[in-house]
Amino acid sequence: MGERRAKDALFAEFAAVGKVLGSPRRLELLDLLAQGPRSVEELAATAELGTSTCSAHLQQLRETGLVTTRRVGKRIYYALAGDDVAALWATLRQVAQHRRPHTDVARRAYLGPEDTEAVGTAELRRRLEETDTVLLDVRPRAEFDAAHLPGARNIPVEELAGRLAELPRDAEIVACCRGRYCVLAHDAARLLVEQGFEARRAVDGALEWRLAGLLVGT
Amino acid sequence: MGERRAKDALFAEFAAVGKVLGSPRRLELLDLLAQGPRSVEELAATAELGTSTCSAHLQQLRETGLVTTRRVGKRIYYALAGDDVAALWATLRQVAQHRRPHTDVARRAYLGPEDTEAVGTAELRRRLEETDTVLLDVRPRAEFDAAHLPGARNIPVEELAGRLAELPRDAEIVACCRGRYCVLAHDAARLLVEQGFEARRAVDGALEWRLAGLLVGT
DNA sequence: TCGTCATTCCATCAATCCATGGAATGACGA
DNA sequence: TCGTCATTCCATGGATTGATGGAATGACGA
């Protein structure tokens, strides 16, 4: 009886998903896609990959079923197949953070010093309701447009230094971005504090809020 | 600035966890470990692996931080590092089931025909409280001892055919095992029904109940 | 119909991974 | 102290994977 063979086939299916999660590059692409659909060249540029390489990785993600494609004009947009994939990605990060001490070292090295104050999601929502806190989403416009917290304003970090006049000096500003391992909010909060604003950064970001069902599209 | 380098290092940490999930053999070991601690040779025998091969896989799991080891006498027991790892494994399976159509084909090929009636966890708990349903855990004794649902009785499948006299003919029997992708309950329920018992099988098993915090140890 | 442009295919090289069996390790028990 | 036994180490060969650049594909727009 092919019981062993059948079991191997089943576990090979599971392993196919695992295998595709085994490359830093693919995870980076997955992280970007968790923010919203993107074309190959956008992804290649953002992830600093060659187009061929990026395409090859995306195809592996697609063959495994984690992402889907849609053609618009002469571009092909890749998107996460569903929120369960985002949940898997979040769980993977959580396990790494929990079980691999070095993850936290790498996280700190990437995000920079913890010199700005962090605001948790519960606290953030309270402040948005009860005070005139400004929620500043500093992700690229495309990602903001795809989905963001209700009431958030968008100024991409690259533009932030030149658009300080748009921000209030008499209210608290909370910067947010892609999620727990994204630099953008750190950078933004740091810049704003240097410029004399009363600024903090959100601990969570679009990925976590997406999983909690808090986001709205445009 | 080594921003790219730092980001790569962070994502390499995440990918290390993904990479170790990319082998069917390791996933099988992980699945077994989700049932409770086991020695290398037990694992090798159950997963039908050579000892060296098994040891090598276990070490990768350990280096990645997903499992821990403990020495007892001349044996080394491997165990899951925590419930978050079990949750990751469950999420991975769920995504595969959801996003890879072939998973269900492989699942059916392995588990055999769906000729016995399935009982979900909510319904199972209701029946255990309100009727005199017998919950029959058909996993190996070691796994049952490590953790099981309160009130369950243990008869490993191998022994089942010879111990039918211990089971009531006037009450419903629900067979349970490791989880959604385990054959044992299917085999047991099939055998019992053939023998004229009023038998069903639980949809969920130890893995799912562990994550729901329903298990008790010995 | 043809040029353009985004994406994919292809061939290649270097690197990594897996399974295997025999030797080495290292803790227990006499 | 020494034999035993579970586990790990090591060397090997076969297979897979990732990055890369140039060629091919295929849809759009003139």
Automatic annotation (TrEMBL), chains A, B:
The UniProt GO MF terms for this protein read:
DNA binding; DNA-binding transcription factor activity; thiosulfate-cyanide sulfurtransferase activity
Q: Which UniProt keywords apply?
A: DNA-binding, Transcription, Transcription regulation
Q: What's one Pfam family here? A: Rhodanese
Annotated HTH arsR-type domain ranges read: 6-100
Signal peptide range in chain numbering: none
Q: Which SMART domains match?
A: HTH_ARSR, RHOD
Occurrences of domain Rhodanese (ranges): 129-218
What InterPro entries does the annotation carry?
Answer: ArsR-like_HTH, HTH_ArsR_DNA-bd_dom, Metal_resp_trans_reg, Rhodanese-like_dom, Rhodanese-like_dom_sf, Thiosulphate_STrfase_CS, WH-like_DNA-bd_sf, WH_DNA-bd_sf
Q: Does the keyword Transcription apply?
A: yes
Q: Name the chain's protein.
A: Metalloregulator ArsR/SmtB family transcription factor
Q: Which organism is it from?
A: Isoptericola sediminis
